[in-house]
Every structure is written in structure tokens, then in C-alpha cells.
DNA sequence: AACGGAGTCAACCGCATTAAT
DNA sequence: AATTAATGCGGTTGACTCCGT
């Protein structure tokens, strides 16, 4: 498509031919350099001709001189871009050939969003073209629920990267970039997971990454002002919600800077993993700590709060491995039939690879980063006896606080009640239905059926003491004894819950509340917290 | 035919890097 | 060494087109 040949241009063209466009021309905007108002918007053929003529005379470069010497009212950047993308000779126009597409895929699997570098392999193409193609392709495949890379490309890229460790075909940055966060969208290629699933022990990732323990990630990466050591250097704070803003939060959306996480053993990072969630009621729901929106929530799954209505940012997320129907859920949890209504998750889950995370507290199943993170977080939590009172304000029963004699909620959840779409392996529904200890007893204790629909829910003991010596505090949370009441209430609809969760998830929970037989007070809400719900519950005062 | 959503593409913007002074 | 300008790069935006309803 060319914007240089159209009706509006024709009108402009005649104007150009007579004189350069007047400032009040629609495509002129306010930017000015040295008192000269520069034009923006589509180029006209006249402008193209001027630019081409200029380049013929003076060669490429010194683009800022174009405006001065040729009278073209375009900034240097615009001239350069126009020349590079449209005017320079030997440009290959038209659709990408099959070979080119294949090459782009392979290159992307190897080097990520290095469009300019890809150009070297695709003569006649521009980085912009490649980028557009890729972005379009991403959307298309995401919509179709297809993996971003064909499996063979995964393997090929994997091998290539392993070789590149030695051959330096791609620098380490690229490798890291490649392995961790593909492209702008923080996409993680399938082969990471494939490989992870395949190895579970053998190092298949670049050493620089495989050596990253969750602890180190938490304490050095997430919890230090060094920022995210495993993030690509090219990552900029995204404008839209995405996984990493959602996950590690606070980068750019008004949340506390990472420095604030340095203390307290990354409590705030640990929290989302079920350890605690001292949520401070905030009327601004959208400022919910994104890291609280992780486990089992759709927000985690697609980096957004919406369940099946991803905000635009969601488009950028993709975890190809989880798009495979045959996904070996060993890395996420055991396979089990998708849960009703909650499984229709946007298929983009992502998680840094952790195939060979070595730590002192390797997760029981070694099933994936989240599990490992969780497990390690448990360790961190358990060793941190002085968990702040603040965190105790949460009514979360963190995994790490679950008595050792008690089946580990998280672990068991992943292993036995795996939600194919949840890194935890247990969806919110599964938590509700399976891990809602009645009357605060063991997780193993079968839920009492009498707690189903009635109101005879045993209230949580007000003075309940928790393993760490602290007391749960109801604080400002809603005094709903039952989440089913909560979800089914008008309040739930009338408050921001629905907004926060998205209509779909909202209805999911309502459905859940109506159908589950294991709801009880306290623990249920804990589960809610654990699944990102408590933040919702806590943030509003009783109506 | 009108409308709306999705796809495509060109161009812009902001930041990073490099070169020049 | 510090500053400024030029350039490169990647992400995003907005206009346009296509297509289905």
C-alpha cells in the first residue's frame, strides 16, 4: 500500500508543484526546527522526487541537510526513513516469499526483534517491513492459537543458539534475549518449554541463564535496583500492560519502583506466589500491584486483568508452548481436563525458563519457574520469621505458611489438579473446589458438603494464629463470609470487581461460586487472595 | 449500501548509540 | 571529558483497505 499515490496526494501534488505546501495544509503539523515548520505524514511523489534528487547529488547521510539544501520540509529522520524504506534502489516490494518468511521466522527465533539485523539476511527488505510482517504474523497466529514457531524452528534455533555460545554468531545478549524474552512482546519461544520439558535436568539453556536461581532472580533481579538481569537490554517500559509489567510490576505504571522491593526479602514479589499479599486498599483499582494478579488468575495468564477480553497489551503475549494441545504439562503441572469456563484463556502464558534452576530449595516437582519461584519463595518466607505485620494484614494463607505436615497447596495443586492453563497447575476454580479447607483444617480434610449453599459457614476465628506467630487481620476486607455470596452479590457487580476481573472472569467466579461445594469462610477468601481475588475483596469497604 | 472490525502499511516517536566538536 | 548532533533502532500509532454482516 502506498500513501503516495492517492487522491489527497494528487491534490497536494499540484500544490507541491506550484509551491511547497502551505503550513495550513492538513498534513503539516506544529513541529518546527529553526523556525521552519516541518511536514509530517505521508510523503508526496514530489517530495520523493526531491529526496531522490538530493541523494543522487549528495549521497546518503547528512539527512538534516536535506531540508536545508533541498527545501524539503521534512526532518532528517523522516527523510532517512523515507529513503531507506521506500526510495532507495534495490528495494524488493511485495509480499514476502515463502523462503523469506521462513527465514524471518528462523531469524526471529535466533535473535528476536532485531529487525535491522534481519535485514542483512533479507536483501531488498526493510526492517519496517519485517517488523510489520512479524507483528502481523504474531497476531494472526495468536488468534489462531498456533505456536509462534514451528517446532523444527525451535530446535534449529536452539541448536543455533547453543552453537552460538561458541561461535558468537549471535552475541550473548541476543542469546539471552532469545531465550528469555523474545521480542518486544516478551514472548518466549516454544522451544524453551519444549526443551525444558525434555530435559528437566540437562542444561539446555545458556549458562548465563540456567544459573539463575529463583533466589537470585528474586534478590538480584527483581529485588534490586539492578533491575531485571534476565530482561533483554532492549526492553523498555512498555506502555501497555504486559506480562512483565504485570508480573514484576511497577516499572512504568505508577507503582513503586523496584528499589522499594529491595527490603523485606522481596516480600512483594513473594506475595503473589501465595505467601502473602498485604494489599493496601487502593481505590484506584488499576493500580493494583500487578504482581498480585498472578497465580491462577487470568491476569497472570495473559498479563492482563481481563479474562478473555485481553486489553491490547495481551496481544503481545504469547507462550507458544502452552498453545500446543499436546503440551506436556509437566512444566506447569499435571494435565487435567481444562476447567470449565476458566480454561478459555488467551493462550499466552509466559514464564521465564527455569529448566535447570538450581537452588537450595528446588521446587518439589521442578515443574517450572513459577513453581520453583513459589517453592523458593516459601523457603524465603519460612526463613523470614519477621514477616512484617503488614503482610500479616493479609488474610492470605501463604503456601509457605502451610504447615509442613499439611500437603502443600501449591505443589499438590500443580501435580494433581493441574490446570493446563495455569502455571500453578491449579486454577482458581480448582483452588476453590479442591483447596478450600473447611474450618481451617488440613488441606486434606474433605470439605463438608453442608457448606455448599447455606450460610452456615463457620466464621474464621478472630484470633486465629498463624504459623509465623502473627494473626490474621481482617482489616478492611469485606466481611463476607462466603465468596459465593460475594460473587453472587450485587456488590460484586456494582463495585469494581467486575471491572477489574473483566466480565468474563467475573461471570466465571460467579458461576464458580454457584457451583462449588467447598466454599467456606476464611479459607475461601484466602484462596481468593491466592488467586488474586483478595485484592478485589479488600479494596472496597463494605457497601 | 452501510457499517464495523480486522488487517496492512507507512510514518512517527522516543530512546540508545555513535560521531563530531 | 563533556556536550551536542546525527544516526540507528524498535515500538507504536493512525490512516487506509478489505471483508464479512
Short précis:
Residues 35-87, 88-142 form the HTH myb-type domain. By secondary structure, this protein is mostly helical. The chain is built from 24 helices and two strands.
Mind explaining what this structure looks like?
With 543 residues, the protein is mostly helical. It is 41% helix and 2% strand. The chain has 24 helices and two strands. Strand 1 and strand 2 form a beta hairpin. The protein starts with 6 loop residues before the first helix and ends in a 5-residue tail after the last helix. Residues 1-30 and 164-543 have low confidence and may be disordered. The protein binds a DNA duplex (21 and 21 nucleotides) through residues 1-4, 6, 40-43, 61-64, 76-78, 80-82, 85-86, 113-116, 127-129, 131-133, 135-136, 139-140, 143, 183-184, 234, 236, 238-240.
Low-confidence stretches: 1-30, 164-543
**Oligomeric state of the chains present here:** single chain
N- to C-terminal separation?
55 Å
Please state the structural category.
mainly alpha
Largest sheet: 2 strands, antiparallel
Output the strand order for the largest sheet: 1-2
Shape: elongated
DSSP helix fraction: 40-55%
Mean pLDDT: 46
Number of strands: 2
Quote the beta fraction: under 5%
Total tally of structural domains: 3
C-alpha Rg, in Å?
A: 27 Å
Helix count from the secondary structure assignment: 24
What is the chain-wise order of helices and strands? HEEHHHHHHHHHHHHHHHHHHHHHHH
GO molecular function, one term: DNA binding
Domain HTH myb-type: 35-87, 88-142
Pfam family, one: Myb_DNA-binding
Protein name: Transcription factor GAMYB
Amino acid at each position: 500500500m502506498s500513501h503516495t499515490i492517492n487522491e489527497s496526494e494528487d491534490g497536494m501534488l499540484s500544490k507541491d508543484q506550484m509551491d511547497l505546501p502551505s503550513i495550513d495544509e492538513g498534513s503539516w503539523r506544529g513541529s518546527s526546527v529553526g523556525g521552519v515548520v516541518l511536514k509530517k505524514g505521508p510523503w508526496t511523489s514530489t517530495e520523493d522526487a526531491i529526496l531522490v534528487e538530493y541523494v543522487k547529488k549528495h549521497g546518503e547521510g547528512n539527512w538534516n541537510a536535506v531540508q536545508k539544501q533541498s527545501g524539503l520540509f521534512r526532518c532528517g529522520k523522516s527523510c532517512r526513513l523515507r529513503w531507506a524504506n521506500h526510495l532507495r534502489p534495490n528495494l524488493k516490494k511485495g509480499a514476502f516469499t515463502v523462503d523469506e518468511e521462513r527465514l524471518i521466522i528462523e531469524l526471529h527465533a535466533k535473535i528476536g526483534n532485531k529487525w535491522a539485523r534481519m535485514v542483512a539476511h533479507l536483501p531488498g527488505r526493510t526492517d519496517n517491513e519485517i517488523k510489520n510482517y512479524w507483528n502481523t504474523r504474531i497476531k494472526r497466529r495468536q488468534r489462531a492459537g498456533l505456536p509462534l514457531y514451528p517446532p523444527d524452528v525451535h530446535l534449529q534455533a536452539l541448536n543455533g543458539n547453543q552453537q552460538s555460545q561458541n561461535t558468537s554468531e549471535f552475541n550473548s545478549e541476543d542469546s539471552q534475549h532469545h531465550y528469555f524474552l523474545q521480542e518486544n512482546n516478551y514472548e518466549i519461544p516454544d522451544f524453551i518449554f519444549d526443551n525444558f520439558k525434555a530435559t528437566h535436568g540437562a542444561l539446555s539453556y545458556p549458562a548465563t541463564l540456567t544459573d539463575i536461581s529463583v533466589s537470585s532472580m528474586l534478590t538480584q533481579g527483581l529485588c534490586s535496583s539492578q533491575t531485571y538481569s534476565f530482561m533483554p537490554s532492549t526492553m523498555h517500559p512498555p506502555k501497555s500492560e504486559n506480562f512483565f509489567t504485570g508480573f514484576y510490576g511497577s516499572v512504568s505504571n505508577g507503582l513503586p519502583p523496584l528499589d522499594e522491593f529491595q527490603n523485606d526479602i522481596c516480600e512483594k514479589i513473594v506475595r503473589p506466589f501465595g505467601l502473602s499479599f498485604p494489599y493496601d486498599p487502593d481505590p484506584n483499582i488499576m493500580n493494583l500491584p500487578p504482581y498480585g494478579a498472578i497465580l491462577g488468575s487470568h491476569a497472570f495468564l495473559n498479563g492482563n486483568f481481563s479474562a478473555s477480553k485481553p486489553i491490547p497489551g495481551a496481544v503481545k503475549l504469547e507462550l507458544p508452548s502452552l498453545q500446543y494441545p499436546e503440551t506436556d504439562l509437566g512444566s506447569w503441572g499435571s494435565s487435567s481436563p481444562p476447567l470449565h469456563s476458566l480454561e478459555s484463556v488467551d493462550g499466552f502464558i509466559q514464564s521465564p525458563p527455569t529448566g535447570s534452576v538450581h537452588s537450595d530449595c528446588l521446587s518439589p516437582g521442578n515443574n517450572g519457574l513459577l513453581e520453583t519461584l513459589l517453592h523458593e519463595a516459601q523457603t524465603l518466607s519460612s526463613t523470614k520469621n519477621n514477616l512484617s505485620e503488614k503482610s500479616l494484614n493479609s488474610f492470605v494463607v501463604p503456601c509457605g505458611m502451610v504447615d509442613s505436615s499439611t500437603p502443600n497447596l501449591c505443589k499438590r495443586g500443580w501435580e494433581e489438579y493441574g490446570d493446563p492453563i495455569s502455571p500453578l497447575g491449579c486454577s482458581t476454580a480448582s483452588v476453590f473446589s479442591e483447596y478450600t479447607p473447611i474450618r481451617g483444617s488440613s488441606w486434606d480434610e474433605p470439605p463438608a458438603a453442608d457448606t455448599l449453599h447455606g450460610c452456615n459457614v463457620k466464621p474464621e476465628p478472630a484470633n486465629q494464629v498463624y504459623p509465623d506467630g502473627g494473626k490474621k487481620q481482617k482489616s478492611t476486607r469485606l466481611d463476607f463470609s462466603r465468596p459465593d455470596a460475594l460473587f453472587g452479590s450485587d456488590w460484586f457487580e456494582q463495585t469494581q470487581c467486575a471491572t477489574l476481573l473483566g466480565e468474563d472472569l467475573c461471570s466465571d467466579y460467579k458461576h464458580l461460586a454457584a457451583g462449588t461445594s467447598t466454599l467456606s469462610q476464611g479459607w475461601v477468601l484466602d484462596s481468593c487472595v491466592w488467586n488474586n481475588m483478595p485484592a478485589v475483596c479488600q479494596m472496597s469497604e463494605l457497601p
